[in-house]
Specification:
The chain is α/β, with parallel strands linked by helices and 474 residues long. The chain has two domains: 118 residues, Urease, subunit C, domain 1; 322 residues, Metal-dependent hydrolases (TIM Barrel, Alpha-Beta Barrel). Helices cover 32% and strands 22% of the residues. It has 16 helices and 21 strands. Strands 1, 2, 3, 4, 5, 16, 19, 20 and 21 form a nine-stranded mixed sheet that branches. Helix 6 crosses helix 10, helix 10 runs parallel beside helix 11 and helix 11 packs parallel to helix 13. It is globular and about 80 Å long. The model has no long low-confidence stretch (mean pLDDT 97). It binds N-(aminocarbonyl)-beta-alanine (URP) and zinc ion (ZN) (2 copies). The site of N-(aminocarbonyl)-beta-alanine has 8 residues, from loops.
Amino acid sequence: MMYDTIIANGTVVNADELKKADVAIRGEKIVQVGKGLAKKALAEQRAGGPNGTRIIDADGCYVIPGGIDVHVHLELPFCGTVSADDYDSGTKAAARGGVTTVIDFAIPYGDDSLHDALEKWKKKAAGKACVDYTFHIAVTKWDRHKHEMQEMVDAGFPTFKQFMIYAREGWQADDAAIFGALEKCRELDAMLLIHAESSRVLDELIERHHNEDEMKRLGARLHAITRPNFIEAEAIQRAVTWAEAAGGRLYVVHMSTAEGTDIIRRAHKRGLDNVFAETCAQYLVLDDSLFAKPDGHLYACCPQIKKKADQKRLWQGLSDGDVCAVSTDTCTFTREQKAMWNGDWTKIPMGLPGLETLLPIVYTHGVRKDRLDMREFVNLVSTNPARIMGLYPTKGVIAKGADADIAIIHPKRKFRVDCEQLETNCDWSPYQGWDLAGFARTTLSRGKVIVDDYTFCGQNGWGRLLTRKSAGNP
Ligand code: URP
Ligand code: ZN
Ligand code: ZN
């Protein structure tokens, strides 16, 4: 049997099983997973059989399905600027981090229809993307966009997004729109992603603290002071209530609080299987003491980084299965862009780089610290995202018939994070100087090696636009 590539001698990890096996690839697909495939192919070659199978030695390494980051913003116009990682740098960063699929958000601006937004985002990615990608579609003008959701589902985009905040950007959805969107998602076999923060009280708190004296004294700490945990928790509770009443599938994005995790757990305990929540790597390892640093404004993202107690609860939620995925919410802004704040925290472009360090953070701080085992790790960064977003079993698993999207990671080899060495366009990193294991030694995207010896070797335009039939149906 002729193969193009065999990944030999590694420990293959899926969400349900970890085993020593070889992985054989033909074209873009995995065609065999089993013992001794490389040995057999080499013996056949020696006996004059078909030649040319590339053997990638993964001895001593984990061989995992490529990471799937279901929450990224590449080249996003936001907070008066445009996020600095585009489909070139962003997907190169993804590849180096072992992420082989990204899901971005197509967001309508002005009078854009959902179709217009989708076309704009397709253009951003075309010819640039180095890994596969697809889009969630933001519903920002309910009265108009509700009539366009069916068209998006028919086109292969069954995940929608609403924001409870961001009136200034023209993105905010009110309760009626959220309730209506959940009903619509039930009807369309689709899923609603929600940015859950309570805007009324948040705006009130921002207003109260928005004065020269406090800004001088507290600087970027006001970003955290004005977003106490109840801002997120109340909004998550409300969204879950609407999902329970409307019956539509709900996916809470970038959940950052212990209270939010408790709400999701209670929902699951009372049998709600239509409610999902992700967290992001930054909420698992960073805490709000960072805002007191001289460059604390760099760390502003939305929702903001919380406390150590929240980290602890989120890790617990991941291992209990209540928090179903870890993403990044990559929304990169350089030091120059962040400097737009000029002492006023309401003007900081909000967002962090993250794609390149997603797997290393979760691996190093999850698996290496015994918070997760390897199968749980794979489940949280690949299999669950694939299942929930409608990409499984093409993505998210190492099995016959799946796309050959694979990351090979050494269990112990660490790299010191240095933004200068990363693929991201960011000139700083929240993890600068951290020693992290779990970077991809080798990444394959649909059978093609795009990272070799920790170095990107793929090509722009290789990444393919993915479509999906339904979502929230794991
Ligand atoms: O700070 C963030 N998260 N920026 C991107 C927009 C969002 O809310 O996801
Ligand atoms: Zn958000
Ligand atoms: Zn986001």
